[in-house]
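Weekly sync notes, structure subgroup
Attendees: PM, AL, DS (notes)

Item 1: joint prediction request from the bench team. They want all three components modeled as one assembly rather than separately. Inputs as received:
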Amino acid sequence: MAFGPHLLLATLEGLVTAAVLALTALGLSLVFGVMRIVNVAHGEFFMLGAVLAWAITTVVSGNPAIGFALALVLSPLIVGAIAWVAERLVLRRIEYNPEATIVATIGLLYIIQQLALTFYGPEARPVTPPFNIRIQLPWFGYSGYKLSIIAASALLLLATWFVLTRTRIGLVMRATQYDRETAQAFGIPVGRVYGAVFALGAMLAAIAAVLIVPIQQAHYLMGLDPLLLSFIVVIIGGLGSLRGTVVAALLIGVSDGIISVFFSPTLAKIIATLVVAMVLVFRPQGLFGTAAK
Amino acid sequence: MTEGSTARIYGLHIAVVAVLVALNFVLPEYHHAVLARVLVLAVFAMGYNLLFGYAGLLSLGHAMFFAAGLYGAGLPLYHLGWGIAAAFASGMAAGFVVSAVVGLLALRTTGVAFMIVTMMFAQVFYLVTLYFGEWTRGDEGLVLPQQARRIVFGGTALDLTDPTTRYLLAVSLFAAALFATLAVVRSRHGRVLVAIRENEERTRMLGYDTFANKLAAVVTSGVICAAAGAAYALLFGYVGATFASVQYSILPLLWVLLGGAATTLGPLIGTLFMYYAVDIASGYTSAYMLVVGVMLILLVLFFRRGVLGTVRERWARWLP
Amino acid sequence: MTPLLVTRGLSRHFGGLRAVDGVDFSLMPGEIRAVIGPNGAGKTTFVSLVCGRYEPSAGTIVFDGEDITRMPAHLRVRRGIAYTFQITSVFANLPVYDNVALPVQRTLTDGRSRGAVRHGVMEALERVGLASRAGVPAGSLAYGHQRLLEVAMGLALKPRLLILDEPTQGLSDGEIDNFIGLVRDIARDATVLLIEHNMPVVMELAQRITVLNAGRILAEGTPAEIRANTAVQEAYLGTTQEAGA
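Output from the run, pasted for the record:
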């Protein structure tokens, strides 16, 4: 293949990565933005979404599209419920102390991973895509499903943006983010908002995982990469900024796609991680905003 | 601090080491081997505790210091045929270099950013061990040949594969790290570290260069962890990328939290307890990660001070 | 005699706010100087610039003939500038003894000698009358005693310039009387720069008074001169008298 088409292919692959990454990172960013905590178990909610999608599509027989549609609805709901319970039982009790929260969510990470390993097993399992259409471009054929991931992610991002900026729920969330005490004084049930935000963050990760699982396979250790990449996106994009998250996801996803096509993926990860660590070290103000210590 | 408590403190620490030496002669084979491993890992935990417990800096990347020692010792021994002493020294030197560089960079951040930056550097280190798989054999790792783990002084040969030699060397390393920690904690520098943990701005306004003190703590901690890693490679003959993975950054945190942060003997208690908890649990279930996860959550929910932290708070304020 | 401390055009802006705006200030060795002014006049910001907690936006600071404008805070402390915090910030979880041992061990040429540290700590604690409380956690002391501990920590640095930021805030009348005696005692071998709201304390202690208003020096002079200054009365004293009445 010539260089041009090769680059186009790499860009398309990168866009798929970016689409999934934007949703996952948005979940992490939302939780950090509103609750001021870092959820280390975020990648495990992603993994759980993928594993549940496999379970649901396996149970449902018939047209793969039916099972997949069901998974797209049920899997995020289950993951959201689990996250909500974890928030109420653990995070609320440690009063969202930043360091204790990190330790507690690491605990959560191990528990979820172990449960997945015990009940799902160590194998990587595929999920059948809801449809198999191949779109023929002049130089190569490309999976229609992958293109639909990009579209679905864009729609979901728009919906999230609408909820955050144009509805009462979004207003309540922004008020809580801005000043917790004042929000409480104005009768906003801060505790319930926190529970809901934590669940919503996990659901976004789960949706992203359901979308990607037909092309990536479900595995109990698949959560680490999305976690690290989400950190990277959130740090570069700036917290709480929906637009920043999307732009950074595009940047990271596409460049990751392109670098992975031309270089070794391990080297690509090394470079990306190192660059982001350096950004955090030398430009922390652009990353955690001014309110974080 | 009175003279009486100084005598009590040294008495306690010497007694602990004496008991460990005595156990060499009474422990059954299985527990003898387990304890040797626990002691080396406890040194890793002590290094972590120095930074997290005393200086109050929560790192999520200490696996890279342990692994720096592990590879710093294992690679030259395996590929270049270096002797044990040279390999151990090179492991510690690797720990010094890695911790100095990481400290200089990561200490520009604080709080949550510090945790994430250390985690990312550790991830880079881990990926590098995979990238150079030609030499490290990545996750599969290297098994150091038995004949290389032997040292000859004049007429006597010291064989690290012999259980008794291995155990006694592990105790020696543990004792050295324990008294080094004790010395640091009771020094001027140790008092400054605790002050930085409690209130960094106030410490600075008492005329202390807090950055330099924190950097010294990162390097001391890194070198102790690297010594543990180098000893692990030499005593147990295995060098693998697993030891550089995120899991080995989390485990010392867990051990220290359980045993009691900012206590000199807490890391040993935490490591010992967790090792056996996982060991016993794995008799019934393979779900060791579940044990780790549940322990972490229970600790932050109900037992923040850990075993010795609670003992110190309730009964023995003099514990260092 | 050359001044101990001189600032020229010292300014600090926070966004659009000029917290300190072109302050020319000088302080003679051995003086007890009070800095007064309404809330938000820039007093704490001004002394924070002097001790290095903030970087100035413009201007210079010269201490004992040396330009310290860009010097890190901990080196200024080593040159002899000690700052006691407005909001009490002793190490609450550490024993009173350790709170004072920290500054003592730094000023000693042989800080490794436990005997020398103990001697220095007890001497500082005795000066403020807290020697009997050495073993208790600082956080368990009464508020007034925590303020005294804060002063003891400043004293233990053996400062040439001791900056006290609202030291009598929250103290009882009896404690304030003791405190006045303590500051006089300190002033025998150190220069004292005092930010204070309590006017009787200022009038009794200060040899000269600098009045700040909106980040600028409004007036400077002896207590009698300041009392007679109509601009000061309008800007500041009037309100205190009302408050005191």
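Discussion: Chain A has one domain: 3-286.
Action: AL to compare against the crosslinking data before next sync.
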